Protein backbone atom coordinates (compact mmCIF):
# COMPACT_ATOMS: atom_id res chain seq x y z
CA UNK A 1 0.00 0.00 0.00
CA UNK A 2 1.47 3.37 -0.99
CA UNK A 3 1.66 6.25 1.42
CA UNK A 4 -0.78 8.41 -0.57
CA UNK A 5 -0.75 12.18 -0.79
CA UNK A 6 -2.52 14.95 1.12
CA UNK A 7 -3.55 18.29 -0.38
CA UNK A 8 -4.75 20.38 2.56
CA UNK A 9 -3.95 21.29 6.16
CA UNK A 10 -0.20 21.21 5.67
CA UNK A 11 2.70 23.44 6.84
CA UNK A 12 3.36 27.00 5.76
CA UNK A 13 6.27 29.42 5.80
CA UNK A 14 6.22 33.22 5.63
CA UNK A 15 8.79 35.18 3.62
CA UNK A 16 8.68 38.96 3.33
CA UNK A 17 5.13 38.95 4.66
CA UNK A 18 3.86 36.39 2.12
CA UNK A 19 2.78 33.00 3.47
CA UNK A 20 3.43 29.98 1.27
CA UNK A 21 1.48 26.81 2.06
CA UNK A 22 2.95 23.46 1.08
CA UNK A 23 2.20 19.76 1.26
CA UNK A 24 4.67 17.23 2.65
CA UNK A 25 4.31 13.58 1.69
CA UNK A 26 6.41 10.46 1.57
CA UNK A 27 9.47 9.22 3.41
CA UNK A 28 10.94 11.90 5.71
CA UNK A 29 14.26 9.99 5.68
CA UNK A 30 14.43 9.80 1.89
CA UNK A 31 15.94 12.31 -0.55
CA UNK A 32 13.80 15.43 -0.97
CA UNK A 33 11.94 16.15 -4.22
CA UNK A 34 10.46 19.62 -4.67
CA UNK A 35 7.60 19.85 -7.20
CA UNK A 36 6.75 23.25 -8.71
CA UNK A 37 3.54 23.72 -10.66
CA UNK A 38 2.56 25.82 -13.66
CA UNK A 39 0.82 29.15 -14.10
CA UNK A 40 -2.46 29.22 -12.21
CA UNK A 41 -2.31 25.56 -11.19
CA UNK A 42 -2.57 24.35 -7.62
CA UNK A 43 -0.47 21.56 -6.17
CA UNK A 44 -3.14 19.02 -7.14
CA UNK A 45 -1.31 19.03 -10.50
CA UNK A 46 1.41 16.82 -9.06
CA UNK A 47 -0.75 14.25 -7.31
CA UNK A 48 0.14 11.45 -9.76
CA UNK A 49 3.88 12.02 -9.71
CA UNK A 50 3.81 12.52 -5.95
CA UNK A 51 2.05 9.17 -5.53
CA UNK A 52 4.74 7.56 -7.69
CA UNK A 53 7.52 8.99 -5.49
CA UNK A 54 6.25 8.89 -1.91
CA UNK A 55 7.50 5.39 -1.07
CA UNK A 56 11.14 6.43 -1.61
CA UNK A 57 11.29 10.21 -1.33
CA UNK A 58 10.14 13.12 0.79
CA UNK A 59 7.93 15.10 -1.61
CA UNK A 60 7.27 18.82 -1.13
CA UNK A 61 4.53 20.59 -3.13
CA UNK A 62 4.18 24.31 -2.45
CA UNK A 63 1.30 26.39 -3.73
CA UNK A 64 2.94 29.26 -5.60
CA UNK A 65 2.10 32.76 -4.36
CA UNK A 66 -1.31 33.69 -5.73
CA UNK A 67 -2.44 30.06 -5.68
CA UNK A 68 -4.53 27.78 -3.49
CA UNK A 69 -3.77 28.04 0.22
CA UNK A 70 -0.87 30.49 -0.24
CA UNK A 71 -1.22 34.25 0.05
CA UNK A 72 -2.17 36.42 -2.92
CA UNK A 73 -0.01 39.54 -2.64
CA UNK A 74 -0.48 42.36 -5.10
CA UNK A 75 1.24 41.70 -8.43
CA UNK A 76 3.00 41.63 -10.72
CA UNK A 77 5.21 38.80 -9.44
CA UNK A 78 8.63 37.76 -10.70
CA UNK A 79 9.99 34.27 -11.20
CA UNK A 80 12.86 35.20 -8.86
CA UNK A 81 10.32 35.98 -6.11
CA UNK A 82 8.65 32.62 -6.57
CA UNK A 83 12.04 30.88 -6.54
CA UNK A 84 12.80 32.63 -3.25
CA UNK A 85 9.45 31.39 -1.93
CA UNK A 86 10.47 27.84 -2.89
CA UNK A 87 13.82 28.30 -1.16
CA UNK A 88 11.96 29.40 1.96
CA UNK A 89 10.05 26.10 1.88
CA UNK A 90 13.37 24.23 1.76
CA UNK A 91 14.61 26.36 4.67
CA UNK A 92 11.46 25.60 6.66
CA UNK A 93 11.97 21.86 6.19
CA UNK A 94 15.70 22.04 6.93
CA UNK A 95 16.53 20.59 3.51
CA UNK A 96 20.24 20.37 2.58
CA UNK A 97 19.71 19.08 -0.96
CA UNK A 98 16.66 18.84 -3.20
CA UNK A 99 15.83 17.34 -6.56
CA UNK A 100 13.64 19.96 -8.21
CA UNK A 101 10.97 19.18 -10.79
CA UNK A 102 8.97 21.94 -12.44
CA UNK A 103 6.42 22.09 -15.23
CA UNK A 104 5.71 25.13 -17.41
CA UNK A 105 6.03 28.19 -15.13
CA UNK A 106 7.23 25.77 -12.45
CA UNK A 107 10.09 24.82 -14.75
CA UNK A 108 11.04 28.48 -14.95
CA UNK A 109 10.96 28.74 -11.15
CA UNK A 110 13.10 25.58 -10.98
CA UNK A 111 15.71 27.11 -13.30
CA UNK A 112 15.81 30.31 -11.25
CA UNK A 113 16.06 28.36 -7.99
CA UNK A 114 18.96 26.28 -9.31
CA UNK A 115 20.79 29.45 -10.38
CA UNK A 116 20.31 31.02 -6.93
CA UNK A 117 20.59 28.07 -4.53
CA UNK A 118 23.31 25.42 -4.44
CA UNK A 119 21.00 22.98 -2.65
CA UNK A 120 19.45 22.03 -6.02
CA UNK A 121 20.95 18.61 -6.80
CA UNK A 122 19.13 17.92 -10.06
CA UNK A 123 16.52 19.44 -12.34
CA UNK A 124 13.59 17.86 -14.14
CA UNK A 125 12.06 20.38 -16.54
CA UNK A 126 8.70 19.59 -18.14
CA UNK A 127 7.04 21.58 -20.94
CA UNK A 128 8.94 24.74 -20.09
CA UNK A 129 11.18 27.42 -21.57
CA UNK A 130 14.35 29.37 -20.76
CA UNK A 131 12.71 32.61 -21.86
CA UNK A 132 14.59 35.19 -23.87
CA UNK A 133 14.59 36.25 -27.49
CA UNK A 134 15.30 32.78 -28.87
CA UNK A 135 12.50 31.02 -26.99
CA UNK A 136 9.39 29.93 -28.89
CA UNK A 137 6.52 32.00 -27.41
CA UNK A 138 2.95 30.98 -26.76
CA UNK A 139 1.08 31.65 -30.04
CA UNK A 140 -1.20 34.72 -29.77
CA UNK A 141 -4.39 32.74 -30.43
CA UNK A 142 -3.49 30.26 -27.67
CA UNK A 143 -2.61 33.09 -25.30
CA UNK A 144 -6.04 34.61 -25.90
CA UNK A 145 -7.82 31.28 -25.39
CA UNK A 146 -6.19 30.44 -22.06
CA UNK A 147 -6.96 33.85 -20.57
CA UNK A 148 -10.44 34.68 -21.87
CA UNK A 149 -13.35 32.31 -21.42
CA UNK A 150 -16.78 33.18 -22.88
CA UNK A 151 -18.65 35.58 -20.61
CA UNK A 152 -21.69 33.30 -20.35
CA UNK A 153 -19.67 30.25 -19.24
CA UNK A 154 -20.43 28.86 -15.78
CA UNK A 155 -17.43 28.12 -13.50
CA UNK A 156 -17.01 24.51 -14.66
CA UNK A 157 -17.37 25.43 -18.33
CA UNK A 158 -14.83 28.22 -17.82
CA UNK A 159 -12.22 25.85 -16.42
CA UNK A 160 -12.72 23.38 -19.25
CA UNK A 161 -12.53 26.13 -21.89
CA UNK A 162 -9.36 27.70 -20.50
CA UNK A 163 -7.66 24.28 -20.30
CA UNK A 164 -8.51 23.19 -23.86
CA UNK A 165 -5.22 24.29 -25.52
CA UNK A 166 -3.21 22.45 -22.84
CA UNK A 167 -4.72 19.02 -23.53
CA UNK A 168 -5.01 16.82 -26.58
CA UNK A 169 -8.14 17.08 -28.70
CA UNK A 170 -9.65 13.79 -27.51
CA UNK A 171 -8.72 13.98 -23.82
CA UNK A 172 -12.11 15.20 -22.55
CA UNK A 173 -13.84 12.32 -24.34
CA UNK A 174 -11.26 9.66 -23.38
CA UNK A 175 -11.21 10.38 -19.64
CA UNK A 176 -14.43 12.22 -18.73
CA UNK A 177 -14.41 11.15 -15.08
CA UNK A 178 -10.82 12.31 -14.63
CA UNK A 179 -11.62 15.61 -16.33
CA UNK A 180 -14.51 16.16 -13.91
CA UNK A 181 -12.17 15.54 -10.96
CA UNK A 182 -9.59 17.93 -12.42
CA UNK A 183 -12.27 20.61 -12.74
CA UNK A 184 -13.16 20.04 -9.07
CA UNK A 185 -9.52 20.33 -8.02
CA UNK A 186 -8.99 23.44 -10.13
CA UNK A 187 -12.04 25.18 -8.71
CA UNK A 188 -10.88 24.37 -5.17
CA UNK A 189 -7.14 24.88 -5.44
CA UNK A 190 -6.05 27.01 -8.40
CA UNK A 191 -4.89 30.62 -8.44
CA UNK A 192 -7.28 33.49 -7.99
CA UNK A 193 -7.81 35.66 -11.11
CA UNK A 194 -5.51 38.29 -9.61
CA UNK A 195 -2.91 35.66 -8.75
CA UNK A 196 -3.06 34.21 -12.24
CA UNK A 197 -2.55 37.64 -13.81
CA UNK A 198 0.37 38.39 -11.48
CA UNK A 199 1.97 35.03 -12.33
CA UNK A 200 1.49 35.65 -16.06
CA UNK A 201 3.50 38.86 -15.71
CA UNK A 202 6.33 36.83 -14.14
CA UNK A 203 6.32 34.37 -17.04
CA UNK A 204 6.32 37.16 -19.63
CA UNK A 205 9.38 38.79 -18.06
CA UNK A 206 11.37 35.60 -17.43
CA UNK A 207 14.72 35.16 -19.19
CA UNK A 208 17.38 32.78 -17.90
CA UNK A 209 18.87 32.09 -21.33
CA UNK A 210 22.21 33.82 -20.78
CA UNK A 211 22.73 32.29 -17.31
CA UNK A 212 21.96 28.60 -17.79
CA UNK A 213 25.49 27.80 -18.93
CA UNK A 214 26.55 28.27 -15.30
CA UNK A 215 24.48 25.32 -14.09
CA UNK A 216 26.32 22.07 -13.43
CA UNK A 217 23.42 19.96 -12.12
CA UNK A 218 22.17 16.93 -14.08
CA UNK A 219 18.97 17.88 -15.91
CA UNK A 220 16.21 15.89 -17.59
CA UNK A 221 14.04 17.80 -20.08
CA UNK A 222 10.69 16.27 -21.06
CA UNK A 223 8.31 17.87 -23.57
CA UNK A 224 5.35 16.88 -25.72
CA UNK A 225 5.80 17.38 -29.45
CA UNK A 226 2.24 18.73 -29.81
CA UNK A 227 2.50 21.31 -27.02
CA UNK A 228 0.38 24.28 -28.09
CA UNK A 229 1.15 26.42 -25.03
CA UNK A 230 4.96 26.30 -24.94
CA UNK A 231 6.13 24.86 -28.29
CA UNK A 232 8.50 21.91 -28.28
CA UNK A 233 11.33 23.99 -29.78
CA UNK A 234 11.91 25.23 -26.24
CA UNK A 235 13.06 21.75 -25.19
CA UNK A 236 15.80 21.81 -27.83
CA UNK A 237 16.84 25.31 -26.76
CA UNK A 238 17.06 24.27 -23.11
CA UNK A 239 19.16 21.26 -24.06
CA UNK A 240 21.55 23.55 -25.94
CA UNK A 241 21.85 26.02 -23.09
CA UNK A 242 22.18 23.60 -20.16
CA UNK A 243 25.60 21.88 -19.99
CA UNK A 244 24.42 18.61 -18.41
CA UNK A 245 20.97 18.12 -19.89
CA UNK A 246 19.24 15.51 -21.98
CA UNK A 247 15.93 16.12 -23.72
CA UNK A 248 13.32 13.46 -24.39
CA UNK A 249 10.21 14.13 -26.44
CA UNK A 250 6.77 12.56 -26.04
CA UNK A 251 5.38 12.16 -29.53
CA UNK A 252 1.99 13.84 -29.83
CA UNK A 253 2.07 14.94 -26.21
CA UNK A 254 0.18 18.15 -25.31
CA UNK A 255 1.22 20.73 -22.71
CA UNK A 256 -0.26 18.61 -19.91
CA UNK A 257 1.41 15.46 -21.23
CA UNK A 258 2.50 14.61 -17.68
CA UNK A 259 -1.18 14.15 -16.82
CA UNK A 260 -2.33 12.47 -20.03
CA UNK A 261 0.72 10.19 -20.15
CA UNK A 262 1.27 10.12 -16.41
CA UNK A 263 2.46 6.52 -16.11
CA UNK A 264 5.20 6.96 -18.72
CA UNK A 265 6.26 10.31 -17.31
CA UNK A 266 6.26 9.06 -13.73
CA UNK A 267 8.37 6.04 -14.69
CA UNK A 268 10.88 8.23 -16.53
CA UNK A 269 11.19 10.69 -13.66
CA UNK A 270 11.60 7.85 -11.15
CA UNK A 271 14.35 6.35 -13.30
CA UNK A 272 16.15 9.69 -13.56
CA UNK A 273 15.91 10.33 -9.82
CA UNK A 274 17.17 6.82 -9.15
CA UNK A 275 20.29 7.69 -11.15
CA UNK A 276 21.00 11.05 -9.53
CA UNK A 277 19.54 10.87 -6.00
TrEMBL record:
<protein>
    <submittedName>
        <fullName>Alpha/beta fold hydrolase</fullName>
    </submittedName>
</protein>
<dbReference type="Pfam" id="PF00561">
    <property type="entry name" value="Abhydrolase_1"/>
</dbReference>
<dbReference type="InterPro" id="IPR000073">
    <property type="entry name" value="AB_hydrolase_1"/>
</dbReference>
<dbReference type="InterPro" id="IPR029058">
    <property type="entry name" value="AB_hydrolase_fold"/>
</dbReference>
<keyword id="KW-0378">Hydrolase</keyword>
<feature type="domain" description="AB hydrolase-1">
    <location>
        <begin position="31"/>
        <end position="261"/>
    </location>
</feature>
<dbReference type="GO" id="GO:0016787">
    <property type="term" value="F:hydrolase activity"/>
</dbReference>
<dbReference type="InterPro" id="IPR050471">
    <property type="entry name" value="AB_hydrolase"/>
</dbReference>
Amino acid sequence: MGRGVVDHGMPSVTRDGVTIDYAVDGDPDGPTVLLLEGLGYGRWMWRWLAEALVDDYEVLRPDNRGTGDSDVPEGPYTVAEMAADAAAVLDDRGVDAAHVCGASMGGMIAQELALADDRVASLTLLCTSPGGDDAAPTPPEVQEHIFSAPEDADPRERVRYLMEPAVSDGFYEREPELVDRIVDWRLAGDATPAGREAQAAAVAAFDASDRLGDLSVPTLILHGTADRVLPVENADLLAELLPHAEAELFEGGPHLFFIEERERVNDRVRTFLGEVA
